[in-house]
Design goal:
With 298 residues, the protein is an alpha/beta fold. The protein contains twelve helices and ten strands. β9 and β10 form a beta hairpin. The radius of gyration is 21 Å and the shape is elongated. It starts with a helix and ends with a helix. Bound molecules: guanosine-5'-diphosphate (GDP). The site of guanosine-5'-diphosphate (GDP) has 19 residues, from α6.
């Protein structure tokens, strides 16, 4: 699945790296290493991660003539090792429900990601209750209600403009009442009122913890893979205020810059847990660094 979503990135990076090897092999010198670096950063992987790859290639091959396959193998291994902490597993509360709060800037793909994640959990035999905590965006509530209908799970919605914290509280309450495995709660993502939003997120956390001590067990930050470095830096404030525990990288299929997973890992110090690979119900995959690294180049 990840391989499918990374087609665009692979087309660019794979071609770029292959282009470095016009003849039989190439001498690894400063010229080669510079060209390699330039091609790597075209995938948005950022200078830090690209530098580490360049250094690894230099360490292994400097002064030698290398072949394409050797270099691809080294790059793949280095990417794997940079992402080795990432995994597609959700935290789990010892006794259900596990409460998952989902945060992210509007338009990042948050509602769709909640729908896909819910479908994923449901398809794996888990029961769940959704909470439409973005009470100011009627469209978000509607969209989430449609997802709940498709999946066949309960959803808690407040009146338009209701206190998001109260919807969050009721969602956890409902999940406890019906014995659901998961409560998955949407939140608002209006960036223009950032400080209010941070307070709102903190209040939601407090209220959830009051209903179920220790909750939320997971706070997922949804990022748009096509949004570029600036948007991602903006989301950092979000991540810190909300106490995020993992990342969902949406729209990876729409981007030729799938390398962005690497700086995200580096900047947020949070595991990428899921990747969005399209708009359909099935278009999400639990993140796996090995398949990711393989799919980038092969
Ligand atoms: P929200 O405002 O953050 O809740 O964003 P939405 O979930 O409404 O998504 C915004 C747009 O991005 C919609 O048109 C979605 O269909 C689309 N979208 C979300 N996730 C993905 C994905 O993984 N791949 C693609 N191609 N589109 C996505």
């Amino acid at each position: 699945k990840i391989a499918g979503g990374l087609q665009k990135t692979r087309r660019v990076l794979g071609t770029d790296i292959r282009d470095l090897f016009k003849s039989e092999g190439r001498l690894v010198d400063d010229d080669f290493l510079g060209e390699l670096f330039a091609r790597l950063i075209r995938t948005d992987m950022g200078t830090g991660p690209a530098n580490k790859i360049r250094e690894e290639v230099a360490k292994q091959y400097r002064g030698r003539v290398v072949h394409l396959e050797e270099v691809i193998q080294t790059i793949t291994q280095e990417i794997r090792s940079q992402l080795s902490q990432d995994h597609g597993e959700l935290a789990k509360n010892d006794s259900p429900p596990t409460v998952v709060l989902v945060v992210g800037v509007n338009g990042s793909g948050k509602t769709t990601s909640i729908g896909k994640l819910s479908h994923y959990l449901h398809a794996n035999g888990h029961s769940l209750v959704l909470g439409a905590g973005d009470t100011f965006r009627a469209a978000a509530v509607e969209q989430l209600t449609i997802w709940a209908g498709r999946i066949g799970c309960e959803i808690v919605t407040g009146k338009s403009g209701a206190d998001p914290a109260s919807v969050a509280y009721q969602t956890v309450d409902k999940a406890i009442e019906v014995g659901a495995d998961y409560a998955i709660i949407d939140t608002a993502g209006r960036l223009q009122t950032q400080s209010n939003l941070m307070q709102e997120l903190q209040k939601i956390r407090k209220v959830i913890d009051k209903r179920l001590p220790g909750a939320p067990h997971e706070v997922l930050l949804v990022l748009d893979a096509t949004a570029g470095q600036n948007a991602i830096s903006q989301a950092k404030g979000f991540s810190e205020a909300a106490g995020c525990t993992g990342i969902v990288l949406a729209k990876l299929d729409g981007s030729a810059k799938g390398g962005v997973v690497l700086p995200i890992r580096e900047q947020f110090q949070l595991p990428v847990k899921f990747v969005g690979l399209g708009e359909g119900m099935e278009d999400m995959a639990a993140f796996d660094p090995d398949s990711f690294a393989d799919a980038l180049l092969k």
